[in-house]
Design brief:
The chain is α/β, with parallel strands linked by helices. The protein has eight helices and 29 strands. The termini are far apart.
Length: 359
């Protein structure tokens, strides 16, 4: 079996972060998001991986390379023609995938459990397609299956106003080569896209063997800032930092819970860090409170600050001086200082397009 992993798109809902960083490289628990997908694929003993990227994109290649660190053979497919839906990605990848079964994995999906059981069920039941499902509070955001009383999927509807179930079809699918027959028959939706839900419905209507498996544990689609924060929470809590202290922690600093501190970092002064939390390499944390579910990237400088449930990217400088920072996503190289340190007084802001700030 092979794998097709998505790392394209423009991440418009995560701007301004994604103006300068591919969303699949946004670090969660201080590790690029796409790395978690690659780890799951490697655990399933899949070796050949094709990654779908935007035309001319070099970021993903620079981060992932040839995949040898995971024992993978990674190659890249450019998404020509612009973003035209997930089924369009399949169409572009068809010449590369050939006549073998494959797992189609959206690179911004996070899952706690192994994907091995999905692969095993697909092969055991000789399915043409296996969909992974998860119960969600807002199925209107996803492809939603209509399931019969005897447990069979009747159809899949994309982002329905009136969902037929509270299940979402997650971004982890397994297909036999027969899936490419559906691509010959489906038409673009009203959104102008080739919908993956239409592929599934066509296969069902034409007698192909379609199965599903509900994900146990947690699953997260990280398309919005609040989803990134929740994904970061889950990774820190269940599978993220190892609690290893490799930096220097001066006497008097309080570490409470699972806290990881990277090499070359220094934590000093009247500082409290409550886990789960992770501090990257070569950071300085002074006279600050770092609350639970916080990730701080490499080379960050934080003093006189209170930060909780936030993702701080590398090379940031923060001195909030009594202002609490919470539920925040702060980009690489950002600088936050108190307004009284410069004149004239007042809040001096340099805010780019699609930014959000609360004063």
């Amino acid at each position: 079996m092979q794998a097709l992993l998505t790392a394209g798109g423009h991440g418009t809902r995560l701007r301004p972060i994604t103006y300068t960083l591919n969303k699949h490289l946004i670090p969660l628990a201080n590790k690029p998001m796409i790395f978690y997908a690659l780890e799951k694929i490697a655990e399933a003993n899949i070796k050949d991986v094709f990654i779908n990227v935007n035309p001319g994109d070099k970021e993903i290649f620079q981060a992932v390379g040839n995949g040898k660190r995971w024992g993978l053979n990674v190659k890249y497919i450019e998404q020509t023609g612009g973003p035209k839906g997930l089924a369009h990605i399949l169409k572009i990848a068809q010449p590369y995938l050939g006549d073998e079964s494959f797992i189609f994995y959206l690179g911004d999906n996070l899952i706690f459990s192994s994907i091995n059981k999905f692969v095993e069920k697909f092969e055991r039941e000789k399915y043409h397609s296996l969909l992974t499902l998860s119960k969600v509070k807002d199925p209107q955001r996803f492809g939603v299956p209509e399931i019969s009383k005897d447990g069979k999927i009747l159809r899949v509807e994309e982002k329905p106003k009136n969902p037929k179930s509270n299940f979402a079809v997650t971004g982890i699918y397994i297909y036999s080569p027969e899936v490419f027959r559906a691509l010959e028959h489906i038409k673009p939706s009203f959104r102008g896209e080739l919908e993956i839900s239409d592929v599934h419905t066509w296969l069902i209507n034409n007698g192909y063997n379609i199965g599903y498996e509900e994900i146990t544990g947690w699953w997260k689609d990280t398309g919005r800032p609040e989803d990134l924060l929740e994904g970061n929470d889950l990774l820190l809590r269940y599978s993220g930092p190892n609690g290893k202290i490799e930096g220097k922690v001066e006497r008097g600093v309080i570490l409470d819970g699972k806290v990881t501190i990277g090499k070359g970092s220094k934590v000093f002064g009247k500082t409290i860090i409550k886990g789960p939390a992770i501090i990257g390499k070569n950071c300085q944390i002074k006279n600050s409170f770092i609350g639970p579910n916080t990730s701080i990237g490499d080379n960050a400088r934080i003093s006189e600050s209170e930060i909780e449930r936030s993702i701080i990217l590398a090379n940031s400088f923060i001195k909030s001086a009594g202002k609490k920072i919470t539920n925040s996503l702060i980009g690489e190289g950002a600088r936050i200082i108190p307004n009284f340190e410069s004149l004239p007084s007042g809040h001096r802001l340099i805010i780019g397009k699609d930014s959000q700030i609360e004063l």
